[in-house]
Amino acid sequence: MLRALDISTSGLVAQRIRLDAIAGNIANMNSLRNEKGEAKPYQERFVVFQPDEDLQSRDGAIGVKVSEVRTETVEPNYRYEPDNPLSVKEGRWKGYVAYPNIDMMSEFVDSLVATRAYEANLGVMEISKNLNEQSLRIIS
Amino acid sequence: MLPSLFDKTTIPALQETLSFTEARHQVLAGNIANADTPDYQLRDLSVDTFQQRLKELLEGRAGRYEVESPGQLKNSEPGDDMRRVRESMKNIEFLDGSNVALEQQVTEVAKNQFLHNLSVAIMSSQFRLLQTAISERV
Q1: Of B103, B124, B125, the CB nearest to A13
Q2: What gap in Å lies between CA B65 and CA B63, rounded to an integer?
Q3: Whole-angstrom Cα distance, residue A139 to residue B123?
Q4: How far is CA A17 from the centre of its chain?
Q5: Rounded distance, CA A91 to CA A11, Å?
Q6: Do the Cβ atoms of A13 and B114 come within 8 Å?
Q7: Where do the DSSP E strands lie in A1-73?
Q8: How far away is chain A from the Cα of B57, in angstroms, using its nearest Cα?
Q9: Is the pTM here over 0.80, yes or no?
Q10: Nearest CA in chain A to B127
């Protein structure tokens, strides 16, 4: 019964990390440089989950963990700003500035899904705790 | 007379469990309080090690429940097995060097509370039994 609490907790942690990644994506919607300061626009990051074998019950129920945080590689959004010092100097996109290609709508929807999943895990935890308390009433 | 009366019951073992859950609760509360402290490493008291030692203590006395000084099992030195932090808790390390995942700690508090409540429930039913025997009525 207490394993159920551990499994739900792993879900909470995983969904919170996913929410962190989404928050980072929205915060960096206009980041024209990467973390090293190079003139490369921010790329969307997304969290990949996988079952966690350390959190496995004898009956096969299994927890979740973050497998990796992947960085998307998509074409940036080009906007024509020839006066911008970060604009492309030569080639097809001469005079254009590369902006991150992040779809705010899907980020918001993802954050809603992550929040609901977090709440669902909390709900399961509440049920597990109630079960524990009910079992205690057998002897008291 | 009274000590021998209680030694016939599981009360000393439950007493040890209660002082352990109390001590562990304080350690876990410290983890939550330090959730934002840079470089803070999780602390914990291992339930498995505690239960193993309690078992050894109880079996070492030829099946009789007898604990020398109450609360002796919760005391542990740094580096002791009982202070081991579960491996699965170490999986996330944040950039500031701390590794506290708040949800895990709150869950541990809830599980610890359950163990505490369980011990208290058994203990009070033990006392009720004694009460019934003393007053000779149900």
Answers
A1: B103
A2: 6
A3: 10
A4: 6
A5: 47
A6: no
A7: 45-56, 62-71
A8: 26
A9: no
A10: A140
Backbone angles phi, psi at B24, to 5 degrees: -65, -35
- Pairs of residues, one from chain A and one from chain B, whose beta carbons lie less than 8 Å apart: 39
Taking the C-alpha atoms of residue B94 and residue B107, their distance in angstroms, rounded to an integer, is 20
Interface contact flag, B87 A125, Cβ < 8 Å: no
Select the residue of B88, B111, B118 nearest A136 (Cβ to Cβ): B118
Selected residue of B107, B124, B125 to mutate for chain A interface (largest A Cβ count, 10 A) = B107
Question: Tens digits of per-residue pLDDT, B73-124?
Answer: 666 666 666 666 654 455 455 555 566 678 888 998 999 999 999 999 999 9
Q: Do B103 and A65 touch (CB under 8 A)?
A: no
Q: Show the CA angle centred on residue A52, arms to residues A47 and A53, nearest 5°.
A: 155
Say if residues B85 and B100 touch (Cβ distance below 8 Å): no
- Looking at residue B38, what is its pLDDT? 80
User: Nearest-CA distance from B65 to chain A in Å?
Assistant: 21
Q: Where are the beta strands (DSSP E) in A22-123?
A: 45-56, 62-71, 77-80, 96-99
Burial of A22 per CB tally in 10 Å (0-12, 13-18, 19+): buried
Give the tokens for residue A85.
Answer: 């010092």
Least confident of A7-16, A107-116, B19-28, B99-108: B99-108
* Helix (H/G/I), strand (E/B), else coil: A99: strand
The mean pLDDT of chain B is 78
